Amino acid sequence: MLNDTQKKIQAQACELAQRSFAPRAAEIDRTEEYPWDNVELLCEAGFMGMTIPEEYGGLGLGYLDVVVAIEQIASACSTMGRITVEANMGAIGAIMAYGSEAQKKRVAPCVLSGDKPAICITEPEAGSAATEMRTRAEKKDGRYVLNGTKYWITGGGVSKVHLIFARVIEDGEDLGIGGFIYIRGDDKDGFTVGTREPAMGVRGIPETYLHFDNLEIAEDMLVVPPQGLRRGFAGLMNAYNAQRVGAGTVALGIAEGAYETALKYVRERQQFGRPIAEFQGLQWMVADMAVGISAAQALLYKAAANAGDGFPNINEAAQAKILAAETAVSVTNQALQLHGSMGYSRNMPLERRVRDARMFTIAGGTAQILRTQVAAAELGMKLPQTRDGFLKLAERESK
Ligand code: FAD
Ligand code: COA
Q: pTM to 2 decimals?
């Protein structure tokens, strides 16, 4: 399924990840420090901003090209896998697709020189119900003034580029949800990085609160998808489908790393006078792990390949992320089980991989919300969840 370029990217990513990222993965987990030195290597190797079009200094690669790299990198180190996702998908994808010339020229060099942008959607009162967000961007004297709080923002305190989802208010009227580019360092007043969440896994990237207190953002830093502000959220989430595929790929890489470790162990570990790989009960566990990994990989590659020059489709992205996330949870747990007490020891990478895998059924759209989106697409129905969603649907149906 992979072409020659993709195979080359895969081999290069594997070499870098095994040489430089795998040996540091346990230390990054323990110290919980953002791996700036590894990010420099990622950047030098050209894995940041791969999707940025060539006219803005990137490689103009497609999502499948990126996915094969993420898979290799995440199987060595989950933190580095997530950084690769956010340096190629999500906020940067939305800005490159919908942004103005000036926005693209301002943001591309940041990412190409090592910045992992932050995408700021979730709020304390608006997680799955993201359309209920309260952050307001009020237009005043040719600038937008932002007030609100975001939380669980990946990269809070380390990212420079932020894409902040907020309600756009003009003359007291709510015009819809837009994305505001804020580059940390340009103007610090009104922007505060809040408390870091003590996360269970993938601990090399901070997830924090972000507070906006009369944060002024220039008018020309508003990203509006082509459908307009009224459907701004839909357009921005359409770009976000790529990040869902990327997150699913990190989960896949984590599962693959655990699987490889388990294969080696069951061949070597002897009990009852023979390698434990000879017990049929364990062989069937290995088979189930292999089936899950192959299926998740197939769905992720399909969603990425079908994106073409656009973004992955909502249904394909959701299906792939559900399967990859749930496979990662089960494969990492089975790999731990196959190691017996050694799996439970912090001297082995299995307990870390179990913790790392756990985030993917929650972050970036929970497995339940994604199932709602798959069902809506499969049934050809709109299944809104929020009050706003129901009101919009009722309004449409009454016409
Ligand atoms: P809730 O929405 O409160 O859900 C609680 C439970 O109810 C879940 O099981 C959920 O599936 C279920 N539920 C809710 N509504 C429904 C429904 N209608 N039908 C069925 N079940 C439902 N956000 C960002 O904006 N940027 C980031 O960079 C970011 N990074 C993150 C990194 C990590 C590690 C984590 C854990 C989260 C991150 N998030 C980020 C936030 C993430 O997107 C939210 O956690 C997620 O959308 C779920 O929201 P919630 O946590 O408020 O859960
Ligand atoms: N891709 C493309 N369009 C999407 C989309 C996606 N992933 N998610 C939502 N949309 C569109 C809907 O089709 C709808 O478009 P319409 O106005 O043309 O009908 C619009 O966005 C609003 O969606 P709707 O389902 O009516 O929203 P809702 O008010 O019921 O809220 C969501 C539900 C969308 C917020 C919820 O399903 C969701 O995705 N929550 C998770 C948020 C998340 O992933 N956060 C990650 C932060 S990192």
A: 0.96
